[in-house]
Amino acid sequence: MAALQFTLHTTDTVTRARTGTITTDHGIIETPIFMPVGTVGSVKAVTQQQLQDNVQARIILGNTYHLYLRPGLEVLEAAGGLHKFNAWDKPILTDSGGYQVFL
Length: 103
Fold this sequence. Notes:
- It contains five helices and five strands; from the N terminus they run βββαβαααβα.
- The protein is α+β, with helices and mostly antiparallel strands.
């Protein structure tokens, strides 16, 4: 696995908002970016083709706690990981799901 890299391009002098590029093993992400949520491994209400062609998603978000509950670690491992499980070859960001643990 290559190192994750962030390259800063611009910073607004008033708001300090930034633009940049995140480079991952699965692709390059220009920031800021819209990130569809695939809570349990897939983004609801759109096909993978629509996600790429219409939404033009460059990254999706998954929730680790929800993935742990369903489909579960055994299913994800048997599939060869989350990218293979959901057939998404671009970057995926997963959050800890820590909020759900305390609900």
